[in-house]
Amino acid sequence: MPPVFKALATITAWFLFIYGLLAILGGFIICGMTPTSFEGWIHQFVGIASLVLSVVVMKLRQGMR
Fold first, then answer.
1. Are 47 and 2 in contact (CB under 8 A)?
2. What are the helix (H) ranges across the chain?
3. Cβ-proximal residues to 33 (8 Å cutoff; 6+ apart), any chain
4. In a 10 Å sphere around its CB, with 0-12 CB exposed, 13-18 middle and 19+ buried, how is residue 43 labelled?
5. Ranges of each domain in the chain
6. pTM of the prediction?
7. What CA–CA distance (Å, rounded) separates 21 from 2?
8. What is the pLDDT of residues 7-41, one digit of tens each?
């Protein structure tokens, strides 16, 4: 497989990881302002899902030769 795919997978994994951390942080900030906010919980869920997807992408990247 061409090396460009491995580079794209690396960029995607880092993007998902950073986005996930920022989404979780934003969720904590929103939940801190209004404890009954459903939007804060959605931010945290999206952040956790993004972190999980970043791990999946890195596992797929390791399988590339």
1. no
2. 3-33, 38-63
3. none
4. buried
5. 3-63
6. 0.84
7. 30
8. 999 999 999 999 999 999 988 887 777 767 788 78
